[in-house]
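User: I've been trying to design a sequence by hand for this structure and keep getting stuck. Would you show me what you'd pick, starting by listing the structure so we're on the same page?

Assistant: Good idea, let's start from the same input. This is the structure you sent:
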């Protein structure tokens, strides 16, 4: 019903920047909240940032370095990542709480995009 596709991952040196994108498509009535999570090798998936129509919030370790934004016309969320550190290395996943044309709101996940930060 709703598909999420991430892009923009890659390899970057410490101190560098990357911009992730996540485009939602399908039979969408409304997108409520869009989020980014990440999962490093051997670790649990963790929250990174979220954006709704009224607010944004961030995990403490990325505050001041990452910025989440949203283009409602394109059903796309972005994550601008600056001052990247090796500990930011992970697979980054897009998540959206969305209501399809038929049915109630639920969470959807993208396939993930790899971000690798070298020291």
């Amino acid at each position: 019903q709703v598909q999420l596709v991430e892009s923009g991952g890659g390899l970057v040196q410490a101190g560098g920047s990357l911009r992730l994108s996540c485009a939602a498509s399908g039979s969408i009535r409304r997108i409520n909240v869009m989020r980014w999570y990440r999962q490093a090798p051997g670790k649990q998936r963790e929250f990174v940032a979220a954006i709704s129509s009224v607010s944004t919030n961030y995990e403490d370790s990325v505050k001041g370095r990452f910025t989440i934004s949203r283009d409602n016309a394109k059903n796309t969320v972005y994550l601008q990542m600056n001052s990247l550190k090796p500990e930011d290395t992970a697979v980054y996943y897009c998540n959206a709480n969305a209501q399809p044309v038929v049915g109630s709101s639920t969470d959807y996940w993208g396939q993930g995009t790899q971000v690798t930060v070298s020291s």
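That's my pick for every position. To get oriented when you compare it with your attempt: The chain is about 0% helix and 60% strand. Residues 28 and 104 are 11 Å apart (CA to CA).
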